[in-house]
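Title: Comparing notes on inverse folding

I've been comparing how different people in this forum approach sequence design from structure. To keep things fair, I'm posting one structure and asking everyone to reply with a full sequence. Here's the target:
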């Protein structure tokens, strides 16, 4: 007969302490805790926490050389731009922030590009050698891991990918800064590492007051940075499949095909049209050599893919160039990477849906594979929410500034697409407009991912069908 365990005296019993706020709320507190810790909601909350921490550090005197009455707004704007890997700035990064401030910005870029909850999950793996169910769900929603059991392996692969690409880019840039620009070895190394991390994470922050305009004709600077931007913008799933799994072309997944061919198409269109519109203009590519014009056109096609670097002054670019750049910025790069925008796969899935609808086909097919209706609805939702965010942001900026629609729209799309390109108006925006851009950057980095994950997690099969009716379309 099993003997019942003896009860400990009340003085020796462990005291279970609960959060007093949640305890006062009772069941409502439990529901609030569960709601806040939901994987879809935890990601934006984590990003917000890191932004607040980063802004607090940037406000310290050790982080800045400048002051001013708007230090709080400046610090928050820079922190949001760095964590959301955007690159929009309201002060000169090179002169306003100290070397310590530059290091803080670099850390925020790296954390924001890798993913805050992915980083937390990785640290938990190192400390406890395992992660719980909630941690895996959070990391899965942030990394877009399709298979639940792959979360751990994907995180380690992402770390290796980032380290390899950033190290190679940093090595090339460091050598160039040291040999060609007379930087001492320490300065060359720091500049090489900073711009390599900024490039691969598609952040666009630079340690030069004119960004990369001073290097417009230097292929040893522009080409490695463009290569790092393209690699980071493809998305980690694509890089893993290409370099680790090495599938034969016939076995490429739809996601891989859409991302690779979509990227090549958009890069080609961007480079060709940028060259066509700016080749002979005295304000942009005109004064450059033939090789410089080629490099400038390459940069003009790559940088709008959510990178934010610039080798020309977009404030004097043609309206046609700004329009093409708007389109490229809004589409963005690949999913589950460091790029922003609505993503290439979203854009192409909608394009194929329109094409099949025009041809009268009920089923949307890509490369002999059908695309589910839920995927099409998800793509439509992400795209329309992006359009809505840009329209709202543009309207608020028009109400708070005196700039033209052309420049305000460019700034809104750049912020939402986490690109960082600017026509030069960001420096002169009032605080209200700066907070609008902060909201757009945050929504662009977090919003579409959160919405897409929420739709995927909340989808439930309906056990009944309602009567069907067809409204008039068009």
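Reply #1:
Here's my take.
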């Amino acid at each position: 007969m099993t003997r019942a365990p003896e009860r400990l005296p009340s003085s020796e019993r462990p005291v279970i302490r609960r959060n007093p706020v949640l305890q006062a709320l009772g069941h409502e507190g439990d529901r609030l805790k569960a709601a806040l810790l939901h994987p879809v909601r935890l990601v934006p909350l984590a990003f917000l926490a890191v932004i607040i921490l980063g802004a607090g550090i940037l406000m310290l005197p050790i982080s800045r050389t400048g002051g001013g009455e708007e230090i709080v707004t400046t610090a928050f704007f820079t922190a949001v731009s760095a964590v959301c890997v955007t690159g929009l700035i309201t002060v000169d990064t090179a002169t306003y922030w100290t070397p310590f401030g530059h290091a803080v910005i670099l850390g925020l870029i790296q954390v924001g590009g890798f993913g805050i909850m992915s980083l937390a999950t990785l640290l938990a793996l190192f400390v406890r050698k395992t992660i719980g169910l909630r941690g895996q769900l959070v990391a899965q929603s942030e990394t877009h891991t399709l298979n639940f059991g792959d979360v751990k392996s994907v995180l380690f692969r992402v770390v290796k990918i980032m380290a390899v690409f950033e190290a190679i880019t940093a090595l090339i840039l460091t050598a160039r800064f040291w040999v060609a620009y007379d930087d001492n070895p320490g300065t060359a190394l720091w500049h090489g590492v900073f711009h390599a991390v900024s490039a691969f994470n598609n952040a666009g922050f630079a340690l030069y007051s004119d960004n990369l305009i001073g290097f417009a004709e230097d292929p040893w600077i522009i080409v490695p940075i463009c290569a790092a931007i393209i690699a980071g913008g493809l998305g980690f799933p694509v890089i893993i499949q290409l370099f680790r799994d090495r599938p034969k072309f016939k076995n490429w997944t739809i996601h891989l095909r859409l991302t690779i061919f979509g990227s090549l198409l958009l890069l080609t269109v961007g480079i060709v049209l940028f060259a066509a519109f700016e080749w002979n203009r005295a304000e942009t590519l005109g004064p450059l050599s033939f090789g410089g014009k080629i490099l400038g056109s390459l940069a003009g096609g790559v940088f709008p893919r959510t990178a934010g670097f610039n080798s020309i002054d977009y404030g004097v670019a043609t309206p046609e160039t700004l329009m093409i750049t708007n389109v490229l910025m809004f589409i963005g790069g690949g999913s589950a990477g460091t790029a922003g925008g609505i993503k290439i796969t979203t854009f192409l899935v909608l394009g194929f849906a329109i094409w099949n609808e025009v041809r009268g086909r009920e089923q949307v097919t890509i490369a002999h594979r059908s695309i589910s209706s839920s995927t099409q609805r998800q793509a439509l939702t992400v795209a329309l929410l992006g359009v809505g965010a840009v329209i709202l942001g543009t309207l608020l900026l028009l109400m708070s500034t005196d700039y033209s629609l052309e420049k305000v729209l460019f700034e809104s799309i750049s912020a939402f697409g986490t690109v960082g390109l600017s026509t030069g108006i960001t420096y002169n925006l009032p605080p209200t407009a700066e907070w609008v851009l902060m909201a757009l950057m945050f929504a662009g980095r977090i919003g579409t991912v959160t919405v897409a994950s929420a739709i995927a997690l909340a989808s439930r099969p309906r056990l009944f069908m309602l009567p069907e009716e067809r409204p008039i379309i068009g």
